[in-house]
Amino acid sequence: MNMVEKVTPIILTGGLGTRLRQVVVNTPKTMAQVAGRPFLEYILEQLQAASFKKVVLCVGYLSDQIQKHFGDTYQNLQITYSVENTLLGTAGAVRFALEKTSTQHLLVMNGDSFCAQPLDVFVQDYFTLSRKASIAVTEVTDTQRYGRVNFDQQEKVTSFDEKGSVQGSGWINAGLYIFNRQLIAAIPAGRNISMEKQIFPDLTIRGELYAYKTSQRTFIDIGTPESFIAADKIFSNWTVGLRPQLCQSSEAIL
Q1: Residues classed as catalytic
Q2: What would the DSSP string read from start to end of the chain?
């Protein structure tokens, strides 16, 4: 069996996008037009390039726009929606979407960011090293703007530094995670819980979270007007199925 067949992708698309509203009005952040297309399309094409066949979209704010645009399929991807009626946070949303999945492993992606990491390679590393939880990290020249992920020689995550606290080169969260299903099932259902502020620190304390060092240098987060404009320039040269070539054009952008 292909390793990706053992994994269900879940994309977090329910954020309010408050920082972006001055340039994107009455539109979900993941549907913001980047180089003439909804940003979410690039993420879905990244999944297709890795041979995924199914995806779950966690939707909330203005979810009808996402559902109307994509429907039940996007090219070769079958789409299932997990619709939140209340804000559940990043971890709470993944826990709520669990009932829409059947695989033992889950690939969680932030719908407002893009790391040009081949996803099948990330999945293969997770299985080869028998991880329970992996977080993709990308290296930047100054982590002060992003926060920092610290890990030991075995790539076991040891701590996280908040934005603005540490200067200099280092590794940052690239917005891609793989979890064993049991870890997500253990999250209390129906509560607003943050993956970054609550789940990751707990997994770190228990020694269950490992870093995956991606060699890809492009990390795009469209959460601010400045990064949104930068993303438009990056994706103007996008080609379906393109992999490492996209990464050569820029270092990380936020």
Answers
A1: 163
A2: --GGGGEEEEEE-----GGGTTTS-SS-GGGSEETTEEHHHHHHHHHHHTT--EEEEEE-TTHHHHHHHHTTEETTEEEEEEE-SS--HHHHHHHHHGGG--SSEEEEEETTEEE---HHHHHHHHHHTT-SEEEEEEEES-GGGT-EEEE-TT-BEEEEE-TTS--SSEEEEEEEEEEEHHHHHTSPTTS---IIIIIHHHHHHTT-EEEEE-----EEE-SSHHHHHHHHHHGGG--TT--HHHHTT-S-B-
